[in-house]
Amino acid sequence: MDLTVTVVLFALICLSDVGQQTQAGLVTLRDSDIDQWVEKISKDLTDFRTKLGATKIEKAFVDRRVTSRVQTETEAGQLLQSVRRRIENLLWKSENNIKNIRIQAEKSYAKYLPQNYSCSDFTAHPYLRAAAILKKKVSPDVGATETAKTTAEPAAPAAPGSVDYCVEEATLELSPDPRLYDVETNRKNSTSHVPPNIYDASNEILNVANWTGSLDDVFIANAQKDSTLKWQYFGTTEGMFKIYPGIQWYVQTRNYTQNDMPIDMFDCRTQYWYLLAATYPQDMVILIDNSGSMKGSSSIMANKTLTEILHTLNVNDFFNVVMFMNMSIKYVSNAFNRTMLQATEMNKNTIMELISNDEKKKESERQFSPQGVSDFRLALVEAFELLRMAKNQSASASAGGVQTIMLITDSAPEDFADLFQKYNPDQQIRLFTFLIGQEATDEETVKAMACRNRGYFVQIATLADVKENVQRYVPVLARTNALLRDYFFVWTGVHQNQIKTQNPEAPPAHMSAVPQEAQTGGFTAFPPLTPTTAAARAAAANASVLPSPISTPQPPGKQQQQLRLKGDIPQHQRKEEDPRVKNKLFASVAQAAYDIRNQTVSDGLGHLIGVAGLDVPVNQFERLGPAWELGLMAYIFMATNNGFILFHPEFRPVNEAGEMQMFYNNQDIADVEVPADGTPTNGRPSYDLSLRSAMIQRVTGFIDMVKVKTFDDMSRGTKQKFRYFYAPLNSTAPFGVATETRPTPFSLGLALPWGSAGQWPPVAAYPTAPPFDSHSLHRENLAKLFSKRLINSTCDAAKPELYKTGLAEFEFCDFSSELLAEYGVNPLCALGSVLELPLARQQAMSCSFEYLKRVMVDALSTREAYEWDTNWNTIVPAQIGATLLFLWTGTGLARWQTPPTNDAQSVIDASFAAARRNGSRDSLYERTALLASSSDSSLTVLTAPSGDSVFARVKANTSVPIYLTSALRVESSVVGVVGAEINYDRLANYFVNATNSCVSGVGGGACVTCAQTNVRCYLLDDSGAVVVSESQTDVGKTFDIVNCPAMQLMINRSLFVTVKAFDFQAVCLKKTPVDSSASTLFNPIRALMRLASWAFIEGFLLLADLTSSTLRVIKAGAQEFGMASSRSTAEDCHRVDASRPDSILKVYERVDAMIAETADLVAPHPDASLKVQEIRRRLMQPLCIGRTADDQDEEEACEYLCKRLPEQFGIGLVSDLLAGCPKFDEAQIDCTVKRTLLRREPRQPLPTSAMRLQCPLLGLCEACQPEANGSSEFNVYVRQVSGTNLMFVAVTGDPNCDCTGCPLAVTTEKLSGTRNISLQQRFRERPPWSRPNVVLIDNSTVCSKTAVPSLTILQSQRWLLSFVVLLNLLVFSSDF
């Protein structure tokens, strides 16, 4: 029979109410028995709330004059303006700080006279190299305060010429800095980073170090005035990056052939803040000569040049790439023809990916294979026409600033003077030329093309030249703004921490120190050695942690003068980047500094000398609109002129592995604020969102929108109406300080849950006067507020568990360093210290007196929790039990109590309190409060962990926690949440006992309860998830996975409704099988091809006269360019079977059962080889070796087995077996996830008697045994557990009958689609610093830089090339 007919028939039979007659053989429950069970459960759970003191706590809030207030539209607008003023003051303060840095830099540069330096000319270190300083520990008796930090060693000046500071050690005291996440810093000194492709002891760098030395005084002064400042810095055009406070720079290592090699790709001149401030936004057309002469090494250098050019473009620029060859032109994709692409990370990556993929194709299939003769005239005309069209375009297709053409070629037939006279007579379009190759011809011709068009010419002879020479075009772009003294402030979007600090923890235990005498320069291999003794391990732990000396291209005569430091350790022992700051998110503000001497103006050569900047943590903006002030579920967010998110509570930039997601900094408002009725187009949201347009246009107003509010990792959701208020953000001076206002690219949004009359749920209104003065509090008052332990002692910050009281993370003051350190350990202690301070001190730290007042009211109102420890046995019901009692308030105040020592139970989730430090923004808090707000009475809410979490706990044989929570309400406002952690086993036993009795003397007949085999009873929560079941593995799953037909019947009766939610921030993983090393043995031709390819590249790089560190940089750069090849497109994203979550769990359960059976079997065997044979026969053979190709379940089973084998049997026993496991490369791919969720429909009345359902009679009912009265009919009983979020469900029928073929209600689908934004031009506005009508006025006479290595050096290395290539061939072939 046709499958469609089957499904329709199933729907008609299985999901219809077929009557309520009792069929012979079908067990029925009596309604009176069910009512009795449900009434008891309701009473016991709601009584638990009362015993926790919820009613008394609510009365205490009322007694302290806390009331409920519905916030109107006018009041909400005032709230927006209040938050707006705070953020605008922060913007202004940040801009003024970098203005101070810029002014000092210009003054120092203007009066500085360059010198001809050598390393021995100084009396102290010319500057502190961040990547090459030694840490000097702070004396234990001094401590880690700012005043204890000293300057670099040696302190005493040396006589000129007595010390060679290129080889002399520099030490710096570094200690944890509470103002910078406890990263080790020095606040008396800055340190400097120089890119590895620049010789950091060159005369040019030493001069830069000299004139930038005075910036330390400004850094320190700024930090003293503003205690919230994080990183301050200045990046020069020469590449020196001056950082304050001083740090030890982390140099990443990457493994090449078992030797860790340092990879330091950082260059301040390629950072967004630098590029934004240095130039106006630009439209750029990149022309690549792809004629036959560009084959081989020229093609490699051209692609690398393209990559570096793209790295200099930021999100406010527009670009396109045009290749010309064979007397024609080609765009990289037909989709990009005759248009300009916004230079987002995604678009730049797409261009590189398309070119990289083309290179992997067969020669006959390639589109961009170098061939034929190039038509320069055709290409140049195309570029000018494209820029002409862009000039007249809107902001969605043009940057609206300067226009440039980048020409990459190895020769030119003429200088095309007539063409430039026609298309660029006033030289308002700059032309930059990049001549590729050592043997390149027509240098003067190519140079003339650049000079005639206000551009710049460079020759790129080797890969080593690419990065530095591409950078040379940026100062040329800055000439006009330098001449105009156009001092504009720029703000970046969100970005990951850019300051690479080292983790101060000890090196990994498996690595040991290698003697200094074993170290040499170049590519010396330092294989990791396993320490065999305690002494060796101690030596490894105590080894000096110092990046290797900077080894870079050096001028003739300087080859032996390397910046080596004594005590260097091998590269493989480098530390990791400090995890405390690695993934912190910042926004940078920057301003360009110019040469202000009159000579540069008269010569018409505006000179950019550098860019000043600082980083502002995005959570510093977010905390200016705190949750305790905004109300339940309300939040603020910020967006840029491009519609990209700066911060948003639902923004997820970090993936599950703790790494930043691809393109996280280009996440759009429309990806997060999704209308409930929105339908994706090609897997993407609609970018015509009214909210998005209004914020980009920087207007003030509001708009209503219904969205799906999700909880618990999108496993629960409900539709909620929000009103969005929005306004532009300017940089505005605080009242009374100044009157200046400057535009920024940001807009502020305020989202409030909204009802018919205003904000709903309503906010809590606190009294105007605090219960105590919020300053100079005595010790007894602090004890009354927070903990009885404070009566006789001060707060012990190191032991927060003593006080059973805590605070959510909200910095209510601009703390001093000492208080910030205390806050970092225990916010409660910092609060107590602040409340003890005089009023003047609190005002000096800009403390929030409204917060201090509220938290004191909360503390006094919740003192009922003081009695939890002494009244534990009275409070906690004996039959249910509890392992933890807790409460939170709207201000983030938390109280908790663990069982007394004589209680057999202990806390199940030890990380519960620490993991829920978001206060009222916590998902459990919000969900509890939201459910309470939709109910007329107090509601007790039970929440189970996710099904995956329960499965993991059951497998590990650990207890499963269930959380009972209830909102604390004052009228209609929620002021807190009280709750308990319950052991599931105790709750399940209680449920069995409560449902195992019948009403005496009613109806007669046999007593049927939930304990019988043909009756299955459950408690479901409001999202359809199982809270209690006879099978513990059902807990946390949605009921459609446990009993699909019964769930579908309830949906059909409108007891539950479906809610669709789209996740446009999802990142999926594509697994690509990789060849094992053994397979190469059977493909010698492939091995030889790989060998030849590798040898060519290695030989070419050596021929290019690269030093060791530059070679590492180029390798990393090539890998970076090739990264696109491992990133799949959205075409690889497919729909998944909606039943996969349940299917996967069943696969895991089957594999676990097989492993357990095999483990029991082999345990008695002493012979390891026999064990291995049995494991191979029983597990590897059926699950991996003999699996069916392309069967998803069998693939999952094999992968899961390979993961579990080492866990069960130990890696030593099964290491050989693991060779048979499949190996995959995992790559992130873009995808959109559609989640279909369930929500209880409270307005739908429940049936008072059984609902009947029947499985289809078409073979979909499996395992119905005749001897067991197998029947395909079932009765379903439902009751609401009053006063709770629970529904009681009982299903009676043949337990051996499993209705299959039922479609799941809760599904997860991956939707195909593209995220390439060029295919759907989004509305955007230009930033405030764009200059659409700018006129170039600079002189074009300085327009060239030639980089050709001397012939003698090239010749001298030919013998070395032959030797190294031969040696590497032998080494490489040994791998096969």
Describe the protein:
- The chain is an alpha+beta fold and 1376 residues long.
- Helix content is 33%, strand content 19%.
- It contains 43 helices and 46 strands.
- The strands form twelve sheets. Strands 11, 12, 13, 14, 15, 16, 17 and 46 form an eight-stranded mixed beta sheet that branches. Strands 6, 7, 8, 18, 19, 20 and 21 form a seven-stranded antiparallel beta sheet that branches.
- A hairpin with a 2-residue loop joins β12 (318-325) and β13 (328-331).
- α4 packs antiparallel against α6 (215-225), α8 (297-311) runs parallel beside α13 and α38 (1140-1162) runs parallel beside α40 (1192-1209).
- The chain is globular.
- Residues 1-24 form the signal peptide.
- It comes from Macrostomum lignano.
- Its main location: membrane.
Which labels suit this protein?
single chain; 1376 residues; 8-stranded mixed sheet
Give a short synopsis of this structure.
With 1376 residues, the protein is an alpha+beta fold. It is 33% helix and 19% strand.
* Rg for CA atoms: 35 Å
Mean of all residue-level pLDDT scores:
80
* Counted beta strands: 46
Structural class by sheet pairing and helices: alpha+beta
Membrane topology: Single-pass type I membrane protein
Subcellular location: Membrane
InterPro entries: Ca_channel_alpha-2/delta, VDCC_a2/dsu, VWA_N, VWF_A, vWFA_dom_sf
Keywords: Calcium, Calcium channel, Calcium transport, Disulfide bond, Glycoprotein, Ion channel, Ion transport, Membrane, Metal-binding, Signal, Transmembrane, Transmembrane helix, Transport, Voltage-gated channel
